[in-house]
Amino acid sequence: MPHYEFLLALFVTNCLSVALPVSEIPSFLKICHQNDPFLNDCLMESVVSLRPYLKNGIPGLGIPACEPFRLEEIEIDQTSGPIHIHARYNNVSIYGGTNFVPKSIRFDLEENIIRLNLYIPRLEMIANYIMDGRILMLPITGNGVAHGNFTDIDVIMALQLTRYCDERTGLIHQRVEDIYVEFDIGYATVYLDNLFDGDETLSAAMNLFLNDNWNMVIEEIRPKLEETIATLIIDFTNVIFSMFPENVLLPS
Ligand SMILES: *[C@@H]1O[C@H](CO)[C@@H](O)[C@H](O)[C@H]1NC(C)=O
Ligand SMILES: *[C@@H]1O[C@H](CO)[C@@H](O)[C@H](O)[C@H]1NC(C)=O
Questions:
Q1: Considering the entire predicted model, what is its pTM?
Q2: CB neighbour burial string for 148-180, b if at least 16 within 10 angstroms, e if fewer
Q3: What is the tens place of the pLDDT at every residue in 14-37?
C-alpha cells in the first residue's frame, strides 16, 4: 500500500481506497492526479470542461441545467444599519452564471483546501419580490417584478474539504466541510416595478435612488447573498463528490 493511502486508511478508519475501473469515469470529468506537478493547471482545465455541463445539466446524474439558474426563494431580513428591510424574492432566475472564467485554482493538498478565483462578466436577475421597510430614512414598499444587471464580478472562494467513508461502498470520498465566498461587483443597475402600489412618481424616485446607491444596497445584503451562493456551491460539489470516490476524481 503506498504511503499516502496508508495515511488515508489511518485517517478514515475501516475505509479503504480501492481503485474503480477506468470505464466508470464519465467523460465530462477531467481526472487530475494529485502528484501531477501541474495539478493546478489540470484542475483549471477540469473546471472549464465542466462549464457546458453546468449550463445544460447532466440528466443522468440528476444535475439540473444552471442556465438560467433558478432559486425558489431568497429572504432578506436586514434590521441594523441604514437599511431596515424585509424582502422576499421568489421565482428567481439568474442568467449568465455559467459564463464564469476561472482565474486561478490552487489545491493545497496538505491542508485539503481548494482556493478558486473566478470572473463573471455579467449576471442578469429577474425575480418576483415583496418588500417592506426603510432605506436610510426613506420608506420603501413594493410587490412586483425585480430586475437587476450586475457586471464585472470577481469571486474568491476557498473550499475546506474533508474525507469520509461511504459506509455502503467502503470507499473514501471528499466533501466540502466549510466554505468561504467573497464577491466584488463592478457595477449594478436595478429596477423594481410596482413600488408603492404603482405610484409612478414615488417609484421613479426610489428606483433612481436605488441605482445611485446600488453599492450601499449590495453591501447590506451581501452576507445573505454570500451565504446563498455558498450553500449552492457546497450542494453542487458534494453531489459530484458523493458520486465518485476520491481516488477516481483525484487519484494520487
Ligand atoms: C417565473 O419566472 C419566469 C422567468 O422570469 C417567468 O417567465 C414566469 O412567468 C414567472 N412565474 C411567476 C409565477 O411569476
Ligand atoms: C438589464 O439588461 C437588459 C439587457 O441588456 C435590459 O433589457 C434591461 O433593461 C436591463 N435591466 C436593468 C435593470 O438595468
A1: 0.83
A2: bebeebebebbbebebbbeeeeebbbbebeebe
A3: 455 544 444 467 777 889 999 999
Strand, coil or helix: 168: coil
Q: Which residue stretches of the chain are H helix?
A: 3-11, 39-56, 200-212, 214-243, 246-249
Residue 174's φ and ψ, nearest 5 degrees, are -105, 155
Distance CA 165, CA 41 (A): 28
Q: Which ligand is nearest to the Cα of residue 143, counting in written order?
A: 1
The region, left, alpha or beta by phi > 0 then psi within -120 to 50, assigned to residue 209 is alpha
pLDDT in tens, 169-196: 899 999 999 999 999 999 999 999 999 9
CA–centroid distance, 149 to ligand 2, in Å, is 6
DSSP assignment, residue 60? G
* Residue 147, strand partner residues: 126, 191
Ligand 1, pocket-test mutation among 67, 70, 91, most atoms within 8 A of CB: 91
| Sequence letter at residue 47 | V
Superfamily of domain 38-249: TULIP domain (3.15.10.30)
Q: How many CB atoms lie within 10 A of CB 195?
A: 24
